[in-house]
Design goal:
- The chain is of the alpha/beta class and 229 residues long.
- It folds into two domains: 44 residues, no CATH class; 149 residues, Rossmann fold (3-Layer(aba) Sandwich).
- Helix 8 crosses helix 9.
- It is globular and about 55 Å long.
- The termini are far apart.
């Protein structure tokens, strides 16, 4: 909105309340459409066709991939000797942009919730296909399928994809808070969960990076109920 351009942002009802509040704070018009991101996407596409508005896809658009790929540029500047990077996967824009930047120079490992195995299913089938879209990280890691643009990048540069349980994600959130005071949303802690619970085991001298994100939560109890004294 700093450029004075109106924006209408479509999200599903499962979107984080924090995300919705920030969209409104930025001055955009927020539209809650359907229960899942596929529903919100369909509504946004229909509105764009009717209004002539420029559409910006959350993950399956060249500009989005390029923008998210700049995370790898920052990592390369900060940690030039990185061997492996663990990245959570939703629609695949982030891991696609990162993998394209590194182009095999760093081992890229995707991490998905067991309840939303979109890239896992796509790689098994040889093309993007629909997968279940649920679980604790559904507000950020549960599209109906991965993007068509990122898929050939993943086939070429993503070494493998690890599936983690909701309980593992929740434990990772708690450990990050208890030990480092880092607040992460469920989707942002998924990659760390694979490392924490030993589903990814680094070699003795391997330098491993884990991408974290906490932009869509303010909670620090992560769904764990505690007694009030």
């Amino acid at each position: 909105m700093r450029l004075g351009k109106p924006a209408r942002i479509f999200v599903p009802s499962i979107a984080s309340p924090v995300k919705m509040a920030r969209i409104r704070e930025c001055g955009a018009e927020l539209v809650v459409a359907g229960e899942r991101y596929a529903d919100a996407l369909a509504e946004s596409e229909a509105w764009a066709r009717a209004s002539g508005a420029l559409q910006v896809h959350a993950f399956d658009q060249p500009e989005t991939l390029l923008g998210q790929g700049t995370v790898a540029l920052e990592l390369e500047e900060q940690v030039p000797q990185l061997d492996t990077l663990l990245v959570a996967v939703g629609g695949g824009g982030l891991i696609g942009g990162i993998a394209a930047w590194y182009a095999g120079a760093v081992r890229i490992v995707g991490v998905e919730p067991e309840a939303a195995p979109t890239l896992t299913r796509a790689l098994a089938c040889g093309r993007p296909v629909e997968a279940q879209a649920g679980g604790i990280a559904a507000d950020s890691l549960a599209p109906r399928q991965v993007g068509a643009l990122m898929f050939p990048i993943a086939q070429r540069y993503v070494e493998r994809v690890i599936l983690v349980a909701d309980e593992a994600i929740q434990e990772a959130q708690q450990v990050l808070w208890n030990t480092l005071r880092i607040v992460t949303e469920p989707g942002g802690a998924a990659a760390f969960a694979a490392l924490l619970l030993g589903q990814y085991r680094p070699s003795a001298d391997e330098r491993v990076g884990v991408l974290l994100c906490g932009g869509n939560t303010t909670a620090v109890d992560f769904g764990v109920r505690t007694a009030t004294v």
